[in-house]
Design brief:
This protein is mainly alpha-helical. The chain has three helices and no strands. It has helices at about 1-30, 35-40, 45-65.
Length: about 70
């Protein structure tokens, strides 16, 4: 029966530690911007920027080979 009290004490202590860590991070603003990471994957701005550079490199290599 003593081990049961020890396990309850340890689990409550661990839960309090996690709660304190969560509150500290919430006050620092860790969880404020939860929408932009989900939307960021939908934006193709980086892919569009890379494609013209690849085309320019291909044109330069074709011009050199002629």
């Amino acid at each position: 029966m003593d081990i049961l009290y020890l396990m309850i004490l340890c689990s409550v202590t661990l839960a309090v530690i996690f709660l304190v860590i969560f509150i500290v991070n919430a006050r620092k603003g860790q969880f404020e911007d939860d929408e932009s990471p989900a939307v960021r994957i939908l934006l193709d701005s980086e892919i569009i920027k890379e494609e013209p550079e690849k085309e320019e490199k291909n044109k330069k290599t074709e011009d050199k080979s002629d």
